[in-house]
């Protein structure tokens, strides 16, 4: 399926049903579909051909999301560009992707103006919502003549991996990859009635691709322009939201918000969490205070969203009690995904043994754009290599113990930072944390934890280390405790451990 086919499927269910809602204004499926035709024709009129790369630089906006559908209808390839990136990073991504057209919001015109002179292939610039001297305005861009275009291949998206681990790579995601993701989503989680999906997290990332199963069900997508937790809670109640997604960092903020207890959450069926590990202690709190609706997903850009899944019911035992032993897992491998644990030289490991998590599935990317060496490395031994260290238990629950690069070797022992972070998060004063290794003459690496406290809380470092030691023993107990007002994060909310290491060395 093309991305626009999900819109057309929803339109076939109910043309007059609400499709996109923002700031109290709703567009029906028929209206969004009509606009997608006009956007497609506008792109074709500007010389965009099937297979060409078209970028979107925008904050959460229903018009920008409709442009995604228009790009697909034109047979072109959607290239999401994160507005939180530095100008140089976006320049490098646009050059890597070979984008000939860029659709952007007026608020980002200064950023685009700064880099457009360095991008000779970028010949079409379109402003969504304002007048910019060197760009087409929206109404001038739109073309009333409808033209359906056949794609030249299956590539639907090119997504940057992000620059936190080196030079960004372009991940080629096909329509088949996203169809597999959508099928897994519809198989694995509850969908009763017509869904209402609330998108607060960036539509350039996980929150965006989760829109496609919602469209396939003829559901309504409520788009929040700004990531405000109080507004998020108000939207959940007012729109009777059934499905939503947040990374753990924002869920911790929801749990700390004074409006949570008085918010009506009875419409919720599925509250997805993912993109980073979640504290088992905070997850149990969420199950009690938000409700038995929490639903985990684990994936990566190269295998979007659904390597493993954990539906709301899987958080509980048969007797209705919380299955605490599962809360630190990433669920089970998804129905259309095979997951194994690989040791050295491609050897697959039995349950309980730790190694690299590897995957086989039509979920896995077509490869890295113009980078055959990286593609070959990521697919060695016939499996996609995630770069995550983990194990499968006897019941096929997947446990991710660390990124390979984040393992700390202290006193000759391998310590997985995520295991220590789970123990630190058990402390009632801690809202979030990160564990890193720092050079140390005695230990090789000194286990160090940086914590962000809950509002109004204080922390005695000795109390924290005693708590961790009781749970994990002395080897896995941090030798150094730092308290920061906030932790450095990437554009999608992941803690940047490289910046923490640099600041502390």
Please provide a brief summary of the model.
This protein is α/β, with parallel strands linked by helices.
Low-confidence stretches: none
Record the strand order, biggest sheet: 2-1-10-9-11-12-13-14-15
List the total number of helices: 16
CATH topology of the domain at 28-173: Rossmann fold
Organism: Nocardioides lianchengensis
GO molecular function: ligase activity, forming carbon-sulfur bonds
Domain AMP-dependent synthetase/ligase: 15-369
Keywords: Ligase
Question: What does this 3D model show about the protein?
Answer:
InterPro entries: AMP-bd_C, AMP-bd_C_sf, AMP-binding_CS, AMP-dep_synth/lig_dom, ANL_N_sf, ATP-dep_AMP-bd_enzyme. It comes from Nocardioides lianchengensis. With about 500 residues, this protein is α/β, with parallel strands linked by helices. Among the domains are: about 30-175, Rossmann fold (3-Layer(aba) Sandwich); about 405-505, 2-Layer Sandwich (GMP Synthetase, Chain A, domain 3). Helices cover about 30% and strands about 25% of the residues. α1 packs antiparallel against α2 and α4 (about 85-95) packs across α5.
């Amino acid at each position: 399926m093309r991305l626009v086919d999900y819109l057309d499927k929803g339109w076939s269910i109910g043309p007059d049903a609400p499709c996109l809602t923002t700031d109290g204004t709703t567009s029906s499926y028929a209206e969004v579909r009509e606009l997608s035709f006009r956007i497609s024709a506008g792109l074709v009129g500007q010389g965009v051909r099937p297979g060409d790369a078209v970028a979107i630089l925008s904050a959460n906006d229903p018009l920008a999301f409709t442009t995604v559908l228009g790009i697909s209808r034109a047979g072109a390839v959607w290239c999401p560009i994160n507005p939180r990136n530095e100008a140089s990073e976006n320049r490098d991504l646009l050059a890597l992707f070979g984008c000939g057209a860029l659709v952007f919001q007026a608020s980002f015109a200064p950023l685009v103006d700064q880099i457009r002179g360095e991008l000779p292939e970028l010949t079409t610039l379109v402003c969504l919502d304002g007048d910019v001297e060197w760009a087409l305005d929206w109404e001038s861009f739109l073309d009333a003549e409808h033209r359906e275009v056949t794609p030249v291949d299956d590539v639907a998206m090119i997504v940057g991996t992000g620059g936190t681990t080196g030079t960004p790579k372009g991940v080629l995601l096909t329509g088949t990859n996203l169809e597999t993701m959508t099928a897994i989503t519809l198989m694995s989680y509850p969908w009763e009635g017509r869904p209402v999906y609330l998108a607060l997290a960036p539509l350039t990332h996980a929150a965006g691709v989760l829109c496609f199963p919602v469209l396939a069900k003829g559901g309504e997508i409520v788009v929040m322009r700004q990531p405000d937790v109080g507004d998020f809670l108000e939207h959940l109640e007012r729109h009777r939201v059934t499905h939503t997604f947040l990374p753990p960092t924002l869920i911790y903020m929801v749990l700390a918000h004074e409006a949570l207890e008085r918010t009506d959450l009875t419409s919720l069926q599925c509250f997805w969490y993912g993109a980073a590990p979640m504290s088992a202690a905070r997850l149990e709190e969420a199950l009690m205070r938000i409700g038995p609706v929490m639903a985990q997903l684990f994936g990566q850009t190269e295998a979007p969203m659904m390597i493993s899944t954990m539906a709301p019911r899987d958080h509980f035992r048969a007797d209705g009690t919380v299955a605490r032993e599962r809360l630190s897992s990433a669920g089970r491998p998804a129905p259309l995904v095979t997951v194994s644990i690989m040791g050295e030289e491609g050897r697959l490991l039995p349950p309980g043994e730790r190694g690299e998590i590897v995957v086989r599935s039509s979920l896995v990317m077509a490869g890295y754009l113009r980078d055959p060496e990286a593609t070959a490395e990521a697919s060695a031994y016939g499996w996609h290599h995630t770069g995550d260290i983990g194990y499968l238990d006897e019941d096929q629950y997947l446990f991710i113990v660390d990124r390979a690069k984040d393992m700390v070797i202290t006193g000759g022992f391998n310590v997985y930072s995520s295991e220590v972070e789970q123990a630190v998060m058990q402390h009632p004063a801690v809202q979030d944390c990160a564990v890193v290794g720092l050079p140390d003459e005695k230990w090789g690496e000194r286990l160090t934890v940086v914590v962000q406290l809950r509002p109004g809380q204080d922390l005695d470092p000795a109390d924290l280390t005693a708590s961790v030691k009781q749970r994990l023993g002395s080897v896995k107990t941090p030798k150094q405790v730092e308290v920061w007002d906030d932790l450095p994060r990437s554009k999608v909310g992941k803690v940047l451990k490289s910046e923490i290491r640099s600041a502390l060395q």
